[in-house]
Write a structure and sequence with these properties.
Order of helices and strands: HEHHHHEHHEHEHEHEHEHHEHHHH
CATH class: Alpha Beta
Shape: globular
Distance between the termini: 22 Å
Helix content: 40-55%
CATH architecture: Alpha-Beta Barrel
Bound molecules: adenine, zinc ion
Strand content: 5-15%
CATH superfamily: Metal-dependent hydrolases
Number of helices: 17
Number of domains: 1
Structural class: alpha/beta
């Protein structure tokens, strides 16, 4: 591993905590909780991770998440991810979680939240990893279901920094969730949304204009609309790009075809992230290494990407400075 990548202080802004469920932990939790998996071994789970697109991944990902059944499971999951952060010089992380994946199989919202937030607190105290939590709505479900989830979360408002939008993008435009995002912003929550991963540039415009997002998750299809690229540069709206994810889900055929360097050179506020590291072959530093090797990134490019991650985070200037040097 390139030593600059290893030692650079970094922020992660696009990580689904359910996507950090390593096959070994999935197998162990299935045994602990008496859940039957359609795989006989860890090797079989790993062999199943061949995806044609976002949906084929999501089908496996939601099925894998069923092994998460108790507060302790969510604690263990989050704790394992935070230890990775500490080992990779990730100073701050803004973590997505998908409550509907769990409440729809009758897990209480607070059991999920309590397990995650307890681990985040231990991570601050024992690992000096700063963190914040973003509740994501599943866009393949209804706008009413998203609103009900937000209502369920509001008693725990102080544990959240914002809301996001994930799951199957095509056919579920950001406009579908305008009312719930309006309500979230009225509660002082920040907003982000997946857009332009598989979906068209119009979805990125909707996320900006209707959901008033502070960042776009993925956003790589912005290049198809020059006026949108101009806008993203002018307003420095960050893109949370996930290189290994994009190749695994066939958004780009190979890493050499990825447009991250093109976006960076064009002046966009690009950041590098892992998305679902247990499914896509690596955590944050492996994503940095993959783009550096395939796209020939310079040390200046790497520093710029790390700097952008601090700029794009929901941190005060004081917090930003302390974390970058601390
Ligand atoms: N949920 C987990 N990973 C995702 C991704 N890459 N896109 C949309 N929803 C997701
Ligand atoms: Zn994602």
């Amino acid at each position: 591993m390139n030593s600059l990548i290893q030692t650079l202080p970094k922020v992660e802004l696009h990580i689904h905590i359910e996507g950090s469920l390593e096959p070994e932990m999935m197998f162990a939790l299935a045994q602990r909780n008496g859940v039957k998996l359609p795989y006989a071994s860890v090797a079989e789970i790993k062999a199943a991770y061949q995806f044609e697109n976002l949906q084929t991944f999501l089908d496996l990902y939601y099925s894998g998440a069923k092994v998460l059944q108790t507060e302790q499971d969510f604690y263990d999951l989050t704790w394992a991810y935070l230890q990775k952060c500490a080992a990779q010089s990730v100073r701050h992380t803004e973590i997505f979680f998908d409550p509907q994946t769990h409440t729809d199989r009758d897990m209480p919202f607070e059991v999920v939240l309590n397990g995650i937030t307890a681990a985040l607190q231990t991570g601050r105290e024992q690992l000096q990893v700063s963190s914040a939590l973003i509740l994501c709505f599943l866009r393949h479900l209804s706008a009413e279901a998203a609103m009900a989830t937000l209502e369920q979360a509001l008693p725990y408002r102080d544990s959240l920094i914002g809301v996001g939008l994930d799951s199957s993008e095509m056919g579920h435009p950001p406009s579908k969730f305008q009312a719930v995002f309006d309500r979230a912003r009225a509660e002082g929550l920040r907003t982000v949304a997946h857009a332009g991963e598989e979906g068209p540039p119009e979805y990125i415009w909707e996320a900006i204009n209707l959901l008033k997002v502070s960042r776009i998750d993925h956003g790589v299809r912005c290049v198809e609309d020059p006026a949108l690229v101009d806008y993203l540069v002018e307003h420095q709206i960050p893109l949370t790009v996930c290189p290994l994810s994009n190749v695994k889900l066939c958004v780009f055929e190979t890493m050499a075809n990825h447009n991250l360097k093109q976006l960076l050179d064009r002046g966009l506020c690009v950041t590098v992230n892992s998305d679902d590291p247990a499914y896509f072959g690596g955590y944050l530093n492996e994503n940095f290494e993959a783009v550096q090797t395939a796209l020939g990134l310079t040390n200046e490019d790497l520093k710029k990407l790390a700097k952008n991650s601090f700029r794009a985070a929901f941190l005060s200037d004081t917090e930003r400075q302390q974390l970058a040097i601390g």
